[in-house]
Write a structure and sequence with these properties.
This protein starts with 8 loop residues before the first strand and ends with a helix. The protein is elongated, with a radius of gyration of 21 Å. Strands 4-3-5-6-7-8 form a six-stranded parallel sheet, sandwiched between helices. It has 238 residues and is α/β, with parallel strands linked by helices. Helices cover 49% and strands 14% of the residues. The longest helix has 15 residues. It folds into two domains: 158 residues, Response regulator (Rossmann fold), CATH 3.40.50; 67 residues, Arc Repressor Mutant, subunit A, CATH 1.10.10. Helix 8 packs across helix 10 and helix 8 packs across helix 11.
């Protein structure tokens, strides 16, 4: 849920911080914004807020990444995109490379409820320049976009802390943290010696889906075989 929050006012004027004054000076023209969000209420709230902003022009809104193909990059330029992760069709993270193919210079800012390490690092690795949690006040979202457009980057405080803490952890621990619950189940089953078919039957999924999970496990653990994955899992337990 987005919060509109109140700005501090004195004599009817918004009191600007030094950073906000600097931001104003760096935005002589409006930045072109696109919003991709599958929740209609949130999409409408964001669209209305930024349409009434002095620094942004809302050029495009959609509920799925695939809709961006309606835009001709030769006719419309985009400076920044607010992008949800859990979307209709492909996820926001899956859509980042496709967005950058269309708009190589655009800043992609994730706006999501997901604060798990897996999503954070996948998004940043794919090319996102910011990561904001949806309970962030909408004025702070605006300031975050201004920071990014001025050449900086932005992450919600809780997200920034997770990123900083990741540098303190062993590489293997970070890799294991990126596994989903289902992928951990499958990895444990591999350690126990179960075949792909046995794993699929035990979990009530298809062998094809099991194989897809195993490929994802190999990729996240940066290994090339079942033996390497099992060895790494056993090493972690010991």
């Amino acid at each position: 849920m987005l919060y509109h929050g109140s700005a501090e006012r004195k004599s009817g004027q918004i009191q600007l911080t030094l950073r906000e004054s600097y931001m104003q000076s760096t935005f002589p023209l409006k930045a072109n914004l696109a919003i991709i969000e599958d929740e209609p209420v949130i999409l409408k709230s964001l669209k209305t807020f930024f349409e009434n902003s002095d620094n942004f022009s809302v050029m495009f809104t959609a509920r799925q990444v695939e809709a961006l193909h309606e835009i001709d990059p030769k006719e419309i330029t985009l400076d920044v995109i607010l992008l949800d992760i859990n979307l209709l069709g492909m996820s926001g993270i899956q859509g980042i490379p496709k967005i950058l193919d269309l708009f190589p210079e655009v800043n992609i800012v994730m706006l999501t409820t997901f604060d798990q390490n897996e999503y954070i690092f996948q998004a940043l690795k794919a090319g996102a320049t910011g990561y904001i949690i949806k309970d962030t006040p909408i004025w702070d979202i605006k300031r975050a976009l201004e920071t990014i457009l001025a050449g900086g980057s932005f992450m919600s405080p809780g997200i920034a802390r997770k990123v900083m803490e990741s540098f303190k952890q062993p590489k293997e621990e970070i890799q294991f943290e990126s596994l989903t619950d289902r992928q951990n189940e499958i990895l444990n089953a591999l350690v126990e010696g179960l075949s792909y078919k046995m794993i699929a039957d035990n979990l009530g999924i298809s062998t094809h889906t099991t194989c897809d999970h195993i490929k994802a496990i190999y990729r996240k653990l940066q290994v090339n075989s079942k033996g390497e994955a099992i060895s790494l899992a056993l090493k972690r337990k010991n």
